[in-house]
Design brief:
Layout (H helix, E strand, L loop, with lengths): L3 H25 L9 H19 L8 E5 L6 E5 L12 E5 L4 E2 L12 H9 L5 E5 L2 H8 L20 E2 L15 H11 L4 E4 L3 E6 L2 H23 L16 H10 L1 H9 L4
Parallel strand pairs: 6-7
Antiparallel strand pairs: 1-2, 1-5, 2-3, 3-4, 5-8, 7-8
Helix pairs in contact: 2-6, 3-5, 4-6
The structure holds zinc ion.
The site of zinc ion has 6 residues, from loops.
Length: 274
């Protein structure tokens, strides 16, 4: 028994040291929602809202995800930990290093397997600051048929004359039909090229934009375009596709849209986000 006290002291001492070490890691790694920087706080709130909106609209439900480039460090991005979008709250938002696609917090939680979609697009495209990956059904139809998904209405403008399609069969690192490696992510970003959308064969799509509100609007717009294109094709009639002049934005339109942010505010309201 004489040895019991030092032994217990050692065990408790080790536990106390371990607890102190965890506490120091936690305090050294402030989560994005704990930041005092107003830009970071706004980015986290917007990303939370985007998760709620896209979940409410059925665009990303059990799977799929949305991210933004960090407003304070362009080499980092913000994305939820691995969690279904309807359940995401601000405290779930993590900060990842884009080059490694790993959490800046080495003790961080489990991440989405397909986070490489986001990292690789940000790496390849400095003009893109928001990415949405989804599995909406009508988009998937166009990822497996020979007819291109192309712009035929205003909301589908990013489709142009036909969205490119990425095929995992062309990727060296085999991760099933999932973009679950840097290799697969880089291959997807290359397929996207200079556009703002790429379809994933038998899987879904990735949409990028200069800002989050635009990315959210466009991911809903292309699914609507896909739905209406299928209906138009079913009539058997020739289709009048969108024309480049349809998308010439006047100065006044730009000013009104930027000033009102009408669609984003409407979507937030519908999804019950304050
Ligand atoms: Zn996916």
């Amino acid at each position: 028994m004489r040895n019991a006290i030092p032994l217990l002291a050692t065990v408790f001492g080790a536990a106390a040291l371990a607890a102190a070490s965890v506490a120091s890691v936690a305090s050294a790694q402030t989560l994005p929602y704990q930041s005092t920087d107003p830009k970071m706080k706004a980015a986290v709130d917007d990303l939370y809202a985007a998760n709620r909106i896209l979940a409410f609209e059925g665009v990303i439900t059990g799977a799929g995800h949305v991210s933004v480039r960090s407003p304070t460090n362009p080499a980092h991005m913000l994305i939820s930990r691995s969690l279904a979008p309807p359940q995401v709250v601000p405290a779930d938002i993590q900060e990842l290093d884009i080059a490694t696609c790993q959490n800046v917090n080495p003790k961080g939680p489990l991440l989405y397997q397909e986070r490489h979609i986001h990292c690789s697009i940000y790496k390849a495209r400095p003009d893109i600051n928001a990415v949405v990956h989804s599995h909406t059904p009508n988009i998937i139809v166009f990822s497996v048929i020979k007819t291109p998904l192309r712009a035929m209405m205003n909301g589908g403008r990013i489709l142009g004359n036909g969205a490119p399609i990425h095929d995992m069969a062309d990727v060296k690192t085999k991760t099933a039909n999932l973009i679950a490696s840097i290799d697969a992510g880089d291959s997807l970003a290359a397929a996207m090229g200079k556009g703002n959308v790429v379809l994933l064969r038998g899987h879904g799509s990735a949409v990028g934009a200069a800002d989050l509100h635009t990315a959210v609007g466009n991911v809903m717009g292309i699914e609507e375009n896909a739905t209406l294109q299928l209906r138009a094709m079913a009539t058997g009639s020739p289709i009048t596709w969108s024309k480049p002049t349809d998308f010439v934005q006047t100065e006044e339109i730009t000013r009104v849209l930027a000033g009102e942010d009408r669609n984003w505010n409407a979507e937030k309201f519908r999804a019950g986000v304050k």
